[in-house]
Design brief:
Elements (H helix, E strand, L loop, with lengths): L1 H11 L9 E4 L7 H8 L4 E5 L2 H6 L3 H9 L3 E5 L8 H11 L6 E6 L1 H13 L23 E5 L11 E8 L3 E8 L7 E4 L9 H20 L5 H23 L4 H17 L11 H13 L3 H16 L3 H13 L9 H18 L16 H16 L11 H13 L1 H9 L5
Parallel strand pairs: 1-8, 2-3, 2-4, 4-5, 5-8
Antiparallel strand pairs: 6-7
Helix pairs in contact: 2-4, 5-6, 7-8, 7-9, 7-11, 8-9, 10-11, 10-14, 11-13, 11-15, 12-13, 14-15
Length: 426
């Protein structure tokens, strides 16, 4: 049955290839930010979108100095570092509309970069953000030039074509929606690993697993192909080899460089429409637990990742892809069956989480067992409405198997191992 489905899929698909932002990547490239801005700005007025904490500790100073050398007139917008809500977005657009800014520069984590993208797309226009939020497919038609500078190695927002917005949701509190399209892409991404050298260990781990999840979910997506796999598997390799070092020694330059590259590769992969975000179970399910239990996005994606592998294990396609992930993570798969190599990807991901002191089950994050039916129902409905997940996730989700998925993720690694050894799933 699966072979027939995929035969039809291959006969009907057409992939459009394109790469996002122009990138300047390397240590101390922040010193060239003014020169880069000069290339793409329409005038000398610039608004810098960041967050209060980064501004207060001086991490933005190098950018401001570089802009001043090029005689830019700079305004800084620096709210508290929380994910962008609808109300915050409206305030930002109002601020960014006060002048005819020639460029919008975002510097910070994914939330700051997403805010900068939205400011650039809507400042000075009469358009309403709400009209463009997913699941709307209304295309954006314009944007001011954007320069994006990440200070974490996770979201890949600096090179992605999506900007996240947080909206109210009755069942889980708040939920993620987004704006996407080619006009959301930055004209330039400047990636300077030196800005990440002081990143706290916990943030290093959480954001690193966001990048790892982007890449890994991109690999297991039914819409993946050799082009996206090449980028995603290299991103997995770089993260698996370097996150431990960056976590335990935050000023290891090689580890920081490689993690920054991994995040950028993940951002590129999730921008391909035929990989879709990725629209597999990991990111879809993280939306049900992240706001409800106040789990950072990357941590939510990370704790679910090995359980996503297990959920999809019955698929021959997924097993082949998981075997590729295991090899990228350093497993010698030469003398393993595909099935054993696929199992190794689960063990390696658990080991990686434990080595950077991340919980490996949902009860450690405060989830309650009695919440599982509510969360599973919400995810089942939302994953199709927002993601069309059945087009991308190897195994079809049902209310029954999603409840089992959350039950196993609630209990933890040993429960998963027992279920896998008995080949038990619904």
């Amino acid at each position: 049955m699966e072979k027939n489905i995929f035969s039809s899929h291959w006969l009907s698909r057409n992939d459009e290839y394109g790469l996002p932002s122009h990138m300047l990547f390397g240590f101390n490239t922040i010193e060239k930010a003014g020169e880069v801005a000069e290339k793409i700005s329409k005038n000398k007025d610039v608004i810098v979108v960041t967050d209060k904490a980064l501004h207060d500790i001086g991490l933005v100073d190098g950018l401001l100095s570089s802009l001043e050398k090029q005689e830019f007139k700079v305004d800084v917008y620096a709210p508290e570092a929380i994910e962008p809500t609808i109300d915050q977005i409206h305030k930002l657009i109002e601020e960014a509309s006060k002048k005819d800014y020639g460029i919008v520069i975002g510097i910070g984590g994914g939330s700051s970069l997403d805010r900068a993208k939205i400011a650039a797309c809507f400042a000075g226009t009469d358009e309403k953000v709400e009209d463009y939020l997913a699941p709307s497919t209304k295309p954006l038609t314009t944007s001011k030039p954007k320069l994006l500078i990440p200070t974490t190695s996770g979201t890949g927002s600096e090179v992605s074509n999506t900007a996240v917005v947080i909206a109210p949701e009755e069942r889980v509190g708040t939920a993620k929606t987004w704006i996407t399209g080619e006009h959301v892409l930055a004209e330039y991404a400047l990636i300077d690993p030196s800005l990440m050298m002081k990143l706290p260990p916990r943030v290093t781990a959480n954001t690193g697993f966001d990048a790892l999840s982007h890449c890994a979910e991109g690999v297991i997506s039914k819409q993946a192909n050799p082009f996206s796999d090449a980028l995603a598997l290299q991103g997995i390799k770089l993260m698996a080899e370097n996150i431990r070092r960056a976590y335990h020694d935050g000023e290891d330059p090689e580890a920081r460089w490689n993690m920054a590259m991994s995040a950028a590769l993940g951002g590129i992969v999730i921008s391909f429409p035929w990989v879709a975000g990725p629209a597999t179970l990991g990111h879809a399910a993280s939306e049900g637990i992240s706001p409800k239990y106040n789990i950072p996005h990357g941590a939510a994606c990370g704790v679910l990742l090995p359980y996503v592998y297990w959920f999809n294990f019955p698929s021959d396609y997924a097993q082949k892809k998981l075997a590729m992930i295991a090899e990228a993570m350093g497993v010698d798969t030469c003398h393993m069956s595909v099935e054993k190599a696929a199992e190794a990807s689960i063990d390696m991901t658990f080991d990686l989480m434990e080595d950077v002191d991340m919980p490996t089950d949902l009860k450690s994050y405060g989830m309650k067992r009695e919440d599982i039916p509510i969360v599973a129902k919400y995810i089942l409905e939302r994953s199709e409405k927002m993601y069309s997940m059945s087009m991308y996730n190897p195994k079809k989700a049902t209310l029954e198997n999603l409840e089992e998925f959350f039950e196993v993720a609630y209990e933890g690694r040993e429960t998963l191992k027992r279920r896998l050894s008995k080949r038990h799933w619904r």
